[in-house]
Design brief:
Blueprint lengths: L1 E6 L2 E5 L6 E7 L2 E5 L5 H13 L4 E6 L18 E4 H9 L3 H13 L15 E3 L3 E5 L2 E7 L8 E5 L4 E5 L16 H17 L2 E4 L5 E2 H21 L12 H14 L1
Parallel strand pairs: 4-5, 5-6, 6-7, 11-12
Antiparallel strand pairs: 1-2, 2-3, 3-4, 8-9, 9-10, 10-11, 12-13
The protein binds zinc ion.
The site of zinc ion (ZN) has 5 residues, from loops.
């Protein structure tokens, strides 16, 4: 697993699975762990990475309810999980979904875990979004980020000018409309993220990266063009130039079915 320091108070790890990112953010003697690595050995080493950087992790945040972003509890068993109200509502309304999908991934790749995934204890904290979340002496800004799924938030770290985008602005994955996603909501989220990207030193997409603000702005334009084309032409829409692998074409086919 790769670990990159973006700022004295921001460290990002990139998982070997789907290049899933996990962002450690600190203010004073409090740190949060946003999203999570995927493999068991990566989660096992995460506390040591945090400790080495003198990040005392007191809480978990999840950008959205997809299983691959919810595994922080394996690294920080005592830390409460904070997420957008929309995400908390999804987790309450769909108990066991994340666990089931994690189990399918683990079965496929023969991954062994120390135990089943616990999300609900200690209880999940629903955060009002848009809103703020106190950390140390400072505050994180929380922005609604739905469209990929029906729930979610992006996290802006003002003093580091880092945007943790959730599953948007990925250099490796095309915009993905999951079962609960929506193309028009996706476009609205891109519009909401645009001014943050313009101010960002670094952007941390859910998968791939981190990238600088200029590259993220270029990806945002490509993603907007792709989603607009998807709404107009469905399967005929062209994929972003650098994201045309077989796997991305499969995701595109699923997107086209979703908007049809
Ligand atoms: Zn996702």
């Amino acid at each position: 697993m790769r670990a990159v320091g973006l700022h004295a108070d921001v460290v990002v790890t990139v998982s070997r699975a789907y290049q899933t990112t996990c962002t450690l953010v600190r203010s004073g003697n409090e740190a949060f762990c946003v999203d999570s690595p995927v493999f068991a050995d990566e989660l096992e080493v995460l506390p040591a990475i945090a400790e080495q950087a003198a990040f005392a992790v007191v809480g978990l945040l999840a950008t959205h309810a997809d299983w691959d972003h919810l595994l922080g509890r394996y690294a920080f068993a005592e830390a409460p999980l904070g997420c957008a109200e929309t995400t908390a509502a999804f987790l309450v309304g769909h108990p066991g979904v994340a666990q089931r999908e994690l189990r399918a991934f683990d079965d496929e790749l023969y991954v062994e875990r120390p135990g089943p995934l616990s999300i609900g204890s200690p209880p999940t904290q629903a955060l009002p979004v848009p809103g703020h979340c106190g950390i140390g002496e400072q505050e994180l800004e929380l922005h609604p980020a739905d469209g990929h799924t029906g729930d979610g938030m992006a996290v802006w770290v003002p003093w580091a000018r880092v945007l943790v985008a959730g599953d948007y602005l990925s250099p490796v994955e095309i915009p993905l409309l999951s079962e609960t996603g929506s193309a028009s909501a996706y476009l609205a989220t891109l519009a909401r993220l645009e001014p943050l990207v313009a101010r960002a030193e670094h952007v941390v997409p859910g998968h791939g990266g981190p990238i600088d603000g200029t590259r993220a702005a270029a990806i945002l334009r490509e993603d907007r063009a792709y989603v607009e084309a998807l709404m107009e032409r469905g399967a005929e829409a062209k994929l972003p130039l650098a994201r045309r692998t077989g796997a991305q074409r499969k995701l595109h086919a699923a997107n086209a079915e979703r908007v049809a």
